[in-house]
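Q: Sequence in, structure out?
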Amino acid sequence: MSFKTLDDIGDVTGKAVLVREDLNVPMADGRVTDDTRLRATVATLTELADKGAKVLVLAHFGRPKGQPSEEFSLKKLADPLAHVLGRPVSYIDWEGDKAAVAALAPGSIAVLENTRFFGGEEKNDPAVIERFASLGDFYVNDAFSAAHRAHASTEGLARVLPAFAGRAMEAELKALEKALGAPERPVAAVVGGAKVSTKLDVLKHLVSKVDHLIIGGGMANTFLAARGVDVGKSLCEHDLKATAEEILDNADKAGCTVHLPYDVVVSKEFAANPPSLRTCNVHEVAADEMILDVGPQAVEALGDVLKTCRTLVWNGPMGAFEMEPFDAATVALARTAAALSKEGSLISVAGGGDTVAALNHAGVAGDFSYISTAGGAFLEWMEGKELPGVAALG
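A: Exactly. Output:
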């Protein structure tokens, strides 16, 4: 899709620019415990401030349900954001906001109060859109992670003010276009996680888009069961076997090769390094055993598949990676993908909370071509859905 970026915004000296960012960061004891989302704002906020704009940051924090409260105030994030940006950041309450904005000097950055203190924010209420728009001359959306929501601050503002994609949003959209929009082929997708039911739409969409679909995690057990494999006590959605069969049939028709594990790591208990741990063929899983990871032979073969591909999209771990030794398959395949990306033979795009955690655990997140920190928005993009916040920029 085509969209305007900060390259198209023109002269913003002394103009108020409303920038939608994602400041919904985890906090404990009043401190930010992960500043990834704050760091993602740096490029856009500093560029606009350096151009002389009055930069007004719009964001939500938590779920205040339309009621102002100290607990969900963005006031507490002004200082952490200032620390990341390396420059002052002021805070503006909704009371007296117009006078406060007028008093800002060109080049200033200010955080506006939580957008969700307005009940109409999540309803995309025209009155709330107008309230926000009255403060700014331009609108910049830099929060891909909130782009799947048609809210006043994510979609509505783009309809009433000149709208542009921020640098983080621009980078995300370009990476996603390379991954599934107009990718270099062959394309592989790794989809893992516990349950097929949470990623049905993703799987249905991907079989028509990719050349290789690698299924891992607990959801692989449902597909193995659909193919007649006895998976013992493994996590398995037996009621979805028919749906899994349908996905496999559609993959065949689309020319997409689905890769399921043929050797697996099993145990009678889900515990770190259990005494009952063993690796076996999928047809040798005992009735009292659970499949907890993909086996080494299958991982080696999957690594060979990636070596034939030019593009990779990854969402979800291959096994129960939170506990050793069931992290082995995820770590090994991630390291192969990272090495291929580093040498320039593979474009790799990964996203989703568990995925980012798994790649960090493997020590390779920095070597992937692009890592998306978006959860719901990344999944909906993988499902082929139109994201309202992105569509409004077109």
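The first helix runs from residue 36 to 39.
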